[in-house]
Amino acid sequence: MQQVLVLNASYEPLNVCSVRRAHVLVFKGKAEVIEELSRPLHSATTTFPWPHVIRLVTYIRVPRAVQRKISRRALFARDGWRCVYCGTASGRLTLDHVVPRSRGGDSVWENVVTSCAPCNLRKGNRTLEESGLELRTKPRPPAPVLFIRLAAPKIPQRWEPYLTSFGATTAA
Ligand SMILES: [Zn+2]
Question: Residue 74's pLDDT is what?
């Protein structure tokens, strides 16, 4: 199934959609085709360019409050598949609450990090101060780009310039 990359008016990647959905957006004048594939899209009476990357005509504000659900895969990808405490990329990775749940810590992007099993064990039920561990990066909600990368089984080559210009997996 061919997917289409959807960019905001600002060119920031938003999500992916089906060719049919992209075509409807373009047909209604809500989006323009930025990249197309060489094969044409046939309807009963005419042919259209096959959309590959489209851009919304009107800027869509993506509220911070609308946050994506936390999954281990997305969390580990956000943190570059490394422990945020010691930086190791080897061994088993776990999800750690910076402020432990038993101490009132929430399961939100700002309070969950990727931790190797030994660091998680060492930290246990303690806060950063108590454990003496330090965060190498401050946890924050991932950029939409991360979810596009996780959602698409294979990123088409012509999507890459749009994705890379809006940050790698570990958004700064
Ligand atoms: Zn570690």
Answer: 93
From the CA of 113, how far away is ligand 1's center (Å)?
11
Distance 143 CA to ligand 1 centre (A): 24
Query: What is the reported pLDDT for 113?
Result: 98
What distance lies between CA 52 and its chain's CA centroid? 19
Q: Enter the tokens of residue 29.
A: 């004048």
Whole-structure pTM value? 0.74
What is the CA(146)–ligand 1 centre distance, in A?
A: 23
Gap between the terminal Cα atoms of the chain: 32
Q: Could you state, in chain order, the average pLDDT of each consecutive group of 10 residues for the chain (172 residues)?
A: 89 91 95 90 79 95 71 94 95 96 94 97 95 94 85 87 70 36
Tokens of 88: 């190791």
Q: Could you tell me the distance, in angstroms and rounded to a whole number, from the CA of residue 96 to the centre of ligand 1?
A: 11
Residue 148 sits at φ, ψ, to 5 deg, of -65, -45
Cα(159) to centroid(ligand 1), Å: 34
What are the distances in angstroms from CA 172 to CA 37, 137, 139, 142? 32, 9, 10, 10
Question: What SS3 state is found at 119?
Answer: helix
Helix (H) or strand (E) holding 3: strand 3-7
